[in-house]
């Protein structure tokens, strides 16, 4: 098994934090530094985008209909193949408030750009029937 490169992990963690922050600040001026041209992006509720151009169009649309209020990173794990896993909490305002927790699988290319990002959603309220 290949050892984890600590320097790459730290750079990628910073890139992930920068991307999440873009949604809060609504400033995507450095998006091209973060997302690869051929990036595949799959949202947690179904839509998928197959290129930087499609991702950029989606973001442009989202900025007209949604305001992200919270996108808090709770935990980040790293794998040896350039993939990082991010556990997060998300809140956004559209015509109603949307709140959920999730996990993203984020793969980086050799240039340290995101080239595959897949989101998974879970319910924020949990029950503990056997606790």
Mean pLDDT: 95
At CATH level 2, the architecture is Roll
CATH fold title: Nuclear Transport Factor 2, Chain: A
Strand order of the largest sheet: 2-1-6-5-4-3
What would you call the shape? Answer: globular
Helix content: 25-40%
Per DSSP, what share of the residues sits in E-state strands of 2 or more residues? Answer: 35-45%
The major pleated sheet works out as: 6 strands, mixed
**Alpha carbon gyration radius:** 15 Å
Describe the protein's architecture and organization.
It holds the Pfam family SnoaL_2. Residues 16-109 form the SnoaL-like domain. InterPro entries: NTF2-like_dom_sf (IPR032710), SnoaL-like (IPR037401). This is Nuclear transport factor 2 family protein. It comes from Lactiplantibacillus pentosus. This protein is α+β, with helices and mostly antiparallel strands. It has one domain (6-26, 46-118): Roll (Nuclear Transport Factor 2, Chain: A). It is built from 3 helices and 6 strands, in the order ααββαββββ. The chain has helices at residues 6-25, 31-34, 52-65, and strands at residues 35-42, 48-49, 67-78, 83-93, 97-108, 114-122. A 6-stranded mixed β-sheet has the order 2-1-6-5-4-3. The protein is globular. The termini are far apart. The mean pLDDT is 95.
């Amino acid at each position: 098994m290949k050892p984890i490169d600590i320097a790459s992990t730290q750079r990628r963690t910073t890139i992930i934090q920068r991307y999440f922050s873009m949604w809060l600040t609504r400033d995507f001026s450095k998006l091209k530094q973060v997302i690869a041209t051929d990036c595949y992006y799959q949202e947690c509720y179904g839509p998928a985008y197959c290129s930087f151009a499609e991702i950029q169009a989606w973001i442009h649309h989202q900025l007209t209909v949604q305001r992200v209020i919270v996108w808090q990173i709770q935990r980040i794990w790293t794998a040896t193949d350039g993939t990082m896993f991010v556990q997060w909490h998300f809140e956004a305002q559209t015509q109603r408030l949307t709140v959920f927790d999730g996990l993203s699988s984020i793969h980086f290319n050799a240039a340290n750009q995101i080239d595959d990002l897949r989101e998974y959603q879970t319910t924020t309220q949990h029950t503990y029937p056997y606790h």
